[in-house]
Amino acid sequence: MKLLFALPGFHSYDRGAEVALLSVADALARDGESVTVMGSGEDRPDTAYRFRHVPSIRRETFESFPHFPPFRSETAWEDASFAPGLLGAYRPGDYDAAITCSFPFTHWALRRPAARKPLQIFVTQNGDWPAYASNSEYRSFGCDGLVCTNPDYLERNRAKWNCALIPNGVDLERFYPGAAERARFGFPEDRPIILMVSAFIATKRVLEGIRAVAQLDDAFLVVAGDGPLRDEGQALADVLLPGRFKRISLKATEMPALYRSVDAFLHLSLLESFGNVFIEAWASGLPVIGHDSDRLRWILGAGAEYLCDTENQAALVAMVQKGLARGAARSGRPEGIERFSWPTIAGQYRDFIARLLAERASVR
After folding, report:
1. Distance (Å, rounded) from C-alpha 38 to C-alpha 6?
2. What predicted TM-score, i.e. pTM, was given to this entire model?
């Protein structure tokens, strides 16, 4: 199959959506599929797919821009700056399927009129509202296949779209229990360390995490992430966690060692589409403290013992204490994590797209 993956952040960011789709693209390419990736970053060594640079303006530039439909966030502004270059680089007839999770501008560019159009595959990495909302720009949404990253999305959309339930994955050759490297990151050796891997945006609730950890006398909080609320978060930590807070930005290659260098993982988003960070932390042997939901219990399975109502600060603080009491007892790879290996996930993508191509051919 000839496949195109397109997203503004490819090779510029290593956040959840970028990591997930690039991992699928790479695994499919290594398995023999013809895969092209278009993004705004630069080519990277050791990737099995072909990369083509398409320029865009970085999302940080747009943080102070007004938000209105369809420019609902700084990432939508970034998406709009990416679409003109994508239109110039994209030749629909070259591909059997085009895959993205970016709406609306990348989505519109990939669906432009053409004599031979590839299958349009939309992945619900950032939510499924384009697939079911009927207001404003969402009325223009359309796809040949919808990859639902959790059962809630599948149930909500299966009657309208051709859907497949496919979770995200984790690189089990990189994320595994192992020895801590605290000196490498400048972390204290004599304190329990809690890690948040979150963007500084309201929905990730990093400020709530700072307030909760402040209730623990000796815990040290590390936040790996950036975003518009970075200054507000730092100011709050300066008051509530003096000498017990560190904000860092790391390359993707350093993330496995970061997970192995802490004692517990905390993520406070109330409802993630999937959340790669949950299974990265779980694969690394950490207790995963998050908001109790059916969706997160489905993801974590046996690893869901540290979930609670995170909007209840007393319950949250108690659960963080419980996680730290267990400590970094990394006795081996967690049971059940194998179902999230990227080759397994990529195989599910391949089977779904192949089925859709076969159905299209039979109709013709």
Report:
1. 5
2. 0.85
DSSP string, 331-343: -SSPTTGGGGBHH
38: Cβ contacts below 8 Å, ≥ 6 apart: 4, 5, 6, 7, 10, 51, 52, 53, 54, 86, 89, 90
Considering the domain architecture, whether residues 349 and 273 belong to the same structural domain is answered as no
Q: How many other C-beta atoms are found inside a 10 Å radius of the C-beta of residue 204?
A: 22
What is the model's pLDDT at position 330? 55
Domain count, the chain: 2
96-100: average pLDDT:
98
End-to-end CA distance of the chain: 18
pLDDT digits 0-9 by tens, 207-227: 999 999 999 999 999 999 999
Question: Which residues partner with 148 through β-bridges?
Answer: 165
Both 271 and 353 in one domain: the answer is no
- For Cα atoms 169, 170, 172, give the angle at the middle one, nearest 5 degrees: 135
Residues 141 and 265 in one domain: no
Domain that holds residue 222: 182-335
CA–CA dist 328, 324 (Å, integer): 8
Name the token pair of 224: 């790996």
pLDDT confidence of residue 333: 76
248 pLDDT band, cuts 50/70/90, is very high
